[in-house]
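Field guide to reading this record: the first block holds the primary sequence, the second block holds the structure written as discrete tokens, and the final block holds curator observations. Each block starts with its own label. This record concerns L-cystine uptake protein TcyP, catalogued under organism Lentilactobacillus parafarraginis F0439.

BLOCK 1 — SEQUENCE
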Amino acid sequence: MQNEIVFGIVLVAALLLSGLYWLQRRKVGFSKLVFGALVIGIVFGFILQLSFGATSKVVTAAIDWISIAGDGYIALLQMLIIPLIFVSLVGAFTRLKVTKNLRTISTTVLATLLLTTAVAALIGVISVFAFHLQGAGFISGTADKANVAVIKQHEAQLTNLTLPQQIVSFLPTNIFADFAGTRATSTIAVVIFSLFVGVAFLYVRDKEPEAAGTFARGIEALHQIVSRIVKLVLNLTPYGILALMTRATATDSIKSIANLGIFIIAAYVALIVVLIIHTLLLLVNRVNPVTYYKKVWPALIFAFTSRTSAGTLPLNVQIQTKSLGIDSAVANFAASFGLTIGQNGCAGVYPAMIATIIAPTVGVNVFSLHYILTLIAVVTISSFGVAGVGGGSTFTTLMVLGTLNLPVAIMGIIIAIDPIVDMARTLVNVNDSIVAGIIAAKRTDGLDTETLNDASKVVESTI
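BLOCK 2 — STRUCTURE
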């Protein structure tokens, strides 16, 4: 009987996926499809959990089959991360028309990402205070074995490394190994290597323009191929989102969500405040927030549902260039740097909140100015190298906790509801990279204000 029930659940999932395919063939908008898949997945998942239980054999077996669509989609996105970063960053250099703008672009983007991360960390601390979460008194129960295993896996990569040594680990020693993604810091290593390649290209362009031209054409051809692959993968987004949300809501215990509900609310409040800070930056730079959010909505909803900043990269760049009028070189710098440096959600708010929750359990006075300033500095430095995929925030948080000599056991409990918080974190990460692109473009006259202010120029889909 159990097998028949599992078969029935998988059949319903297949019919839901077929329905999405039918809507896609009828040219329903990309954002509507993704949002629809999100809602359907949540409803379907909760129905499964309420009917059979989050840990029942029926749900486990059915989700195992349904996850083929979700995990397959994530695997394809991860496949694209390294090639996307390399061709995007090197391509930014080959498209750079005026070399003197390079310093302004890079410093403006980095300053925006890091300063907003520092502010986001402070907001995370204040949110913990506001909801009285310090000391972890709101946490009850024990960590799931699977969650503890995840923590230990990430922790093993940081064993016996001081913060300076962790920073050195960002540097590439074997770029081929990093292209294969063999380390947790492979992403930032590829970014660094790409920057070296880009700077070398600028030198060769001055000395050997013919060789530089050949290289630039090769990178452009490679960029076109990778972009085409990206579009093929993005076609699968609605199906992946439906499967991922079904698994999340079917297997994440409602009891766990209820127990940690106060943390979820506090995290979302902090992330919303960070978005308000982003909006203030837009106003300072004379950008209409209403028009801006209407234009970037497809990227934000994609980031929210997919939980991957890296997967949002192509849509991020396309919206910056086609909807906001940002120069392509600036857009590629901002989007690529935003994947691995200064993520406001995953590397700003979240680590600061976790550290402030845990610190009082070992006698640290979290209200002291020294603690707050130290935490903000550590969080900002640790924000270098965060991976733009699910799990990146866990690695960064462990770096922060390790540097501050704080225990990590409580994370094994909090990670149970991580996907719920991660959706909003990823949205904030992507938004910050786009805001950094606008600010850098304004400083270098790389912003087409006519395109920016034209409300009709909205990228609905990359397909």
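BLOCK 3 — OBSERVATIONS
The longest helix spans residues 57-94.
The mean pLDDT is 85.
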